[in-house]
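Write out this protein's structure.
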Amino acid sequence: MGVHPEVDAHYRPQRVGLNEALAAAGARPDEIRYVVNCHLHFDHCGGNMELPGRPNFAQRAELELARTSDQYLPEFVDVPGVAYEELDGEAEILPGVVIVPTPGHTAGHQSVVVRRTDGTVIVAWAEP
């Protein structure tokens, strides 16, 4: 998991490692095949480096901001092994799995809609 001295000093995060968090949910890292972050602020993408080689779906607008704006920490965005699949808007990445732009918190913010036979699940994050 990413560590950053200024972030640590200001926020004093309590980190839980990816393996530990997945184990608590009954899963393992080798079971994760795709990564979708709602946006690329450090507190949402800091664990991406622990999932190298998997397609990581991100809106092109979010990647551009993350690489140029001082509101992001680029050292958490472009890390070795992260394989971005750049999207321009809505995209069905797997049958029944659609990434939908939900700009607001950031210009490239996105959410995930999963259409299942027993209903639809929407995975979204909103700033409190």
